[in-house]
Each structure stands twice: as C-alpha cells, then as structure tokens.
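Key idea: predict the complex, not the pieces.
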Amino acid sequence: MSIRVVRPGLLTTVQDLGRHGLQHLGLCPGGAMDPVSLALANALVGNPPGAAALEITVIGPELLFEHDTLVALCGAEFQGAIPHNRPLLARAGERLSVGRAVRGARAYLAVAGGLAVEPVLGSCSTYLPGHFGGLDGRALRHGDALPLAEDVSAERFAALKRRRGASVRWSAPPLTVPDREPIVVHAIEGQHAGLFDTAMQRLFFDTVWKVAPESNRMGFRLAGPALARASTDEILSGPTALGSVQVPANGAPIALMADHQTTGGYPRIAEIVSADVPRVAQMAPGATLHFALCSLETARELRRDAKERLDAALRSIAWEYGN
Amino acid sequence: MARLPKPLGVVPLGDLAAYVEFSRTLDLEVNAVAQRLAAAIVARAVPGIRDVVPALGGVALHFDPGFDGDVAKTAAELVELCMKKGLPDADDLGREVEVPVCYDAEFALDMGEITERLKISSEEIINRHVAGEYRVLMVGFSPGHPYIGGLDPDLSMPRRATPRAMVPAGSIAIANQQTVVYPYAISGGWNIIGRTPLVAFDASRGSPSLFAPGDRVRFYAIDRREFEMRKENP
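Result:
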C-alpha cells in the first residue's frame, strides 16, 4: 500500500513531532515546522497528533493514489483541487495536485493510519542536514512510493459518513496561517540583549523584518537594518532553543527553527514565544513580521491560549469520528 | 569535597526552555559541575523535561510543550534541590573514548600556519596533542560535534580569521584551548591538525554519537595505511 509521487514539489518531506532527548548529543528535535497544523491534519483523518505526514513547502507535489485513501491538508493555503482543512477520500487511481502556496508557506498532508517510514532515533522526521529519517533522509523525488501504515481509510471514511451523511461539509479552523502582514511575533528578551545598546534594541522591535530567501528549516534569516553590537567581545558558546533569535557579526538576525543548531556562539537578542513559532513557520520568503516584547508570564499565557484553541479544535474533530 | 558553585542565574530560552548559567567564561571545574548537575537532573526523570543539555558554562533544560509551569522558576527550584541532595561524582560520569588520528600533511590542513604562529614543530604539536588528557565539555552545534577540553596551553590559539567554506568530515581541529572533531563536512574556522577515520555521528548506530558530554578522550596517532584500514563509512 503506497502513494506514488508524480511530482515532488519544492521541498516535501516526511515529518512527525521530532526526536527528543538527544540535544545533549547535538541533535535538534526537528519535526514539523508547524506542529499545530500537523496535529489538525492528523486529527481530520483520525490519527494521533504526531503521526508521520508530508510537510509541503511553498510549491506542492502531485500524488497518485493507488488505493482509496483518506487524506487531509492543513496549514498554508495552496492553489489546486484539494480542499483544505477537511477530510477527503482520494480514490484509487486518482491524482491530487497541490499547487503553489497563496497564504502561508507550509501545509501538512496527513493520511489515515499515517505514513509507514522506518523511525530513526525514535522519529520518522526527515533531518536533511544529517541525511536521515523520513524517506532516506531526503526530500521526496519523482517516482517515490510512500508506504502507508495500515488500511484504515475505508473504515474511517464510513465512520465519518455515518455521522454526517455522504458529504463532509465542516472544516477545521486554520490556527497558524496569517490573515495580514506584518504578523506580530511575541518574544521575550534574549540573554544577550544587553550587548546591544538601547537604540539597537529599540530598532529590533521597531523594524518590520522580511523573511530572506536563504531561510530554511534550520533558521529564518531576517532582512532589515543591521543590528550593531555595542561590544564585540566573543561570548562563550551556549545552548540555543527553538525560536532563539541570534545576531551574527553581519547584524542580520536569524530565528532558529525546527532543525536548528543546539548550541551557538552568537548573541541571542530575543526568544520567540512557543505559541508564535508555528505562526513564524508559516512565513514564506518575502513575508513580513515584527516583534513585540513580552514577559515570560505573558509567553506562558499565550502558550495556554494556543493550547486551548488547538485542544478545542481537536475535540470537535474527534466528535465527527464519534470519539 | 569542594563547595559547589552557585548558578549566576537562570535564563529563560523562550517559555519552554531555561539555561542555568554558572559561568560566562570557559572554566573546566565549572563545566564538570554542570555535567554532574545534568546527570543528577536526568536521574530524577522529571516529567515535563525532555532534554537536559550540559553546555560549556551551565545546563539547559528543554520542556515538553504540554508543560504548564514557569520554566525559569521550575529550573531554579530543581537545581537547588539537586545541589542540596549532592551531585554524582565526576569520575562516575562519561566513558573512555580512544580516537585514532592521522596527522599526515594531507589531512593537517592548517599545520603550516600553526607551526608558524606557535613556533613549535609539527612533530612536537602532534606529540603534545597525543599526550593530552581530555574531557568532552559539550556536544553541540551539529549532531555529535564535541568540544573537548584539556588542550596543552602551549597549543592555544584563536580560530582562523576566515573560516573554511568546507571542513572535511572527521577533521580534528584546535582553537580556544579546545579540540573539536567535525562529524560532517561543514564550514568551520578551527585550525585543522589531522583526521580520524571514525564516524563521529551515525544515526543508525545504537549509540549514535561517538562522544557524549563528560567522556574522557585520548587521541593516538596512526599512519595513512591504518587510516584507510579503519575508515568507517557512515
């Protein structure tokens, strides 16, 4: 049982929620850049939130289904025939083409039962720099066969139909895709903010930053004014985290994303709050954002709010399955 | 037993990670305490904490997204509790790792510049590098990339002014009183003195990383023929 890749798209990889507990060996967790949309897509096909799915980036793939397969596409809005945010039964022999992203940058295509790639170090996520995980540690190519874990599509689609009749007329809410730009990204003060003088710190929060083309799953480079440090003393290499914003010598900030380095020697001017990281992940090159300084306590509240919104959406989807 | 140093503070790395900082400069004693503390935290298997990362100057804790508390406060309380209960002995942590190195000119890309700068012959540099007793201070930056302390102070030198665009995988390099091993071919600015045939990180191995924080490391010289014989393929 598999799905055939007719056209791979710009960068389509297998991702789940990543591999944890290995950062002391220098291995970042990786996983879906926007785990919220991954969880929604999985829920729509009756999977647990972290089942392995396709992460589709900016230009989508064309897939040929060899069997009736229940699928769902969540996250960024793409051109093409696949309806977003609802389950869809792709018929045997059917081709589904995902076009170009029109709002947001990344979408997740989940299949009922999940993709059955071999886990590496506890995760199916593709880690491109290390060439492992997912499908041979690389992005999809023309002709690839994506193995499916189990044949549950017919049974799950039947369960959905029992609930609502033949058609599925409801949809899940897009939780991470921006309505308008620049988006506001909340960030707490970074450990090394003090290495920049007050004017530079203000500049960081006043600037509308543009996501630069050389951004990837490791980090987003932000184009804007150069942030000059007050002192150029080397700092001791220290830990980084998902959402750390570091400023290398050229003064152009880098926001660390899913495949980030685990330690670094550049000053960290800010730390993006966890609730906003999936929203940043939806920024395509050229998209704009600005930072809003917040406290750790506010970051925690934003995290709770985001979790409540996701949990509510997941509950309502589970209801459609009669769970 | 020496008194344990107190952390300088707890720095939130966003709302799901915190860095318990002990020192802003490289201090091998403090680094050893960070590793002992990390071991004590790991041993407690605290729910909600999924990564404990000993770094050069402290310990970072990464929390599960479902964690509802305040990371800085939780980290500070946990550290205080662990330090009060006593930390495991440094000698009980880490393994012995022996690393064969071929120091041939073909691999020692920066040896010329090093001998010129330090006014020490390449033979003497190799002898001193091999004689050192080393400990892994941190593994970070990229998977399996160790920062190894214990370099002979006479071999101390800064990083190259201009980093190399591509450092070959397995390269052994020195700078900042440390030795590193490049697990992957990446860009880098450390001074390259040789190459190991071992693969430092292989995701398909049961124990993927050759080096872990706290490991005691010994380098020994091998010739080109042995290098080829022992060459591992990732």
